[in-house]
Hints:
This protein is mainly α. The protein is built from four helices and two strands; from the N terminus they run E-E-H-H-H-H. The chain has a domain of 86 residues.
Amino acid sequence: MATEIIRGKEKTYLRITYKAVPLLTEGPVSFSRRLDQVLTRLSTGENRFQWVGISMVIQAIFITPLVGLVILKTGNLPVFWAMATAVMYLTFIPSLAGLSSKKVVTVFLFSVLINLLLILSASLVDLLS
């Protein structure tokens, strides 16, 4: 980021310019390195509260009720309720603890993966019983 002061006859302006950062490096890059670069690019400091809000709203309004509905329809086992509650808290605690947005996004994506596995396992238990 570069700043420049421009002084006119009546007003003084401050011009701020940003340097473009490439998203990916040249050559072959591993999946984990590419994911780290994308998360770093998405989770800049000024977007922290946006990612906290997005992760909490998506988890509370869409994902957890969907998982709860699947658990209810597939046998209502307490083990799945405990896991669904733990995964919901897994998203909320880093968000409310004030961790960096990169960690919040990473934990949110991890919790989405766990929820998908929870839906799959509840469905398989229902099919096998």
